[in-house]
Amino acid sequence: MEIQEYKLESLPAGFARIRTKAAGINPIDARRMTGEFKHAGLPQTFGTEFSGEIIAVGQNAEGFKIGDAVLGSGGSFTHATIIDVPIGNLIRKPENISWEVAGSIPGVAQTAMTILDEIGPVKSLLIHGASGGVGSITVQLAKERGIEVIGTSSKRNLEYVQGLGAIAIEYGEGLIDRIQAAHPEPIDAAVDMAGTEEATQASLATVKKDGIISTIAGKKTSSDRVIPIWVKRNPKNLQHVVDGIEAGTFNWEIDSVFPFENASDAYSKVLEGHTKGKTVLSF
Ligand SMILES: NC(=O)c1ccc[n+]([C@@H]2O[C@H](COP(=O)([O-])OP(=O)(O)OC[C@H]3O[C@@H](n4cnc5c(N)ncnc54)[C@H](OP(=O)(O)O)[C@@H]3O)[C@@H](O)[C@H]2O)c1
């Protein structure tokens, strides 16, 4: 992996050109670095979210002007110093939210909203991997909807997950017993963000018979009952989370910030799979 320079094309109508300030890293970026997707050919670029300042606007790009601070999402190209993004993907960055926080919101926020919308109205939800990027905001959005959350994490992050509003349970041997002790009634639904067999088995044992068991981990599971969920991009959902962070309703944890030049170190950290909140590139 290396940082390469490329020539900027003319800005298409309906697009804004942005000088990036920060960009969150999602596990999919880190997995690209390993060559997992080599069937897609080279070169491959990275990044699906960003914050930054508008430095040019194309024709028919109404509502935004040069100098505006924005954040948004875009497919696999945002880990770059200058990016061209459709205006419809942008929302304004509130002044009291840092570049690093703003640039790491879009991916996980829209994933969390998709999960809760697809699971639908439930009273209780089991989240495997509640301390990660997606987990942290899913816990808080679920609590906002009045859902009781049981969230798993390593011992190190139990207090953090509890602070987000969940009943925190350590994963590992004895997980099912611990969940049942904390929540004796069958749980309405589960979502797996860890992608482990342990999570699948724990969901099968603790979710009620007609309850939804889902995964976002994108891995094959041992049970046909596990439904995959894929993020749906929706600026209204993104705005909802940004508003909540601006108002102080939602906590946003930054695990670590790496300079763009050290992107490979940042991806390696995400690959370890124990991020607390978000890992971010700074430009
Ligand atoms: N389907 C989609 O559209 C979509 C969208 C976004 C993300 N994803 C996928 O969703 C997954 C989570 O993403 P993320 O951004 O939240 O990742 P992340 O920030 O790297 O967090 C991963 C979390 O998993 C926890 N974890 C590790 N091993 C675990 C285990 N054995 N049991 C339970 N939890 C465990 C870690 O907690 P500890 O540190 O406490 O161990 C960590 O907090 C990734 O596979 C990602 O690719 C899918």
Description:
30% of the residues lie in helices and 27% in strands. The model has no long low-confidence stretch (mean pLDDT 96). The protein is globular and about 60 Å long. The chain has helices at 27-33, 99-103, 106-119, 133-144, 158-164, 175-182, 197-206, 235-246, 263-271, and strands spanning 15-25, 49-57, 69-73, 82-86, 90-92, 124-128, 148-153, 167-170, 187-192, 207-215, 226-228, 254-259, 278-282. Strands 1, 2, 3, 4, 5, 12 and 13 form a seven-stranded mixed β-sheet that branches. It has a six-stranded parallel β-sheet with strand order 8-7-6-9-10-11, sandwiched between helices. The protein has two domains: 15-105 and 252-282, Medium-chain alcohol dehydrogenases, catalytic domain (Quinone Oxidoreductase, Chain A, domain 1, Alpha-Beta Complex); 108-228, NAD(P)-binding Rossmann-like Domain (Rossmann fold), CATH 3.40.50.720. With 283 residues, it is an alpha/beta fold. It binds NADP nicotinamide-adenine-dinucleotide phosphate. NADP nicotinamide-adenine-dinucleotide phosphate binds at residues 26-28, 107-108, 111, 128-129, 131-135, 152-154, 157, 171, 193-196, 199, 216-218, 229-231, 270, 273-275. This is NADP-dependent oxidoreductase. Pfam families: ADH_N (PF08240), ADH_zinc_N_2 (PF13602). GO terms for molecular function: oxidoreductase activity. InterPro entries: ADH-like_N, ER, GroES-like_sf, NAD(P)-bd_dom_sf, YIM1/Zinc_Alcohol_DH_Fams.
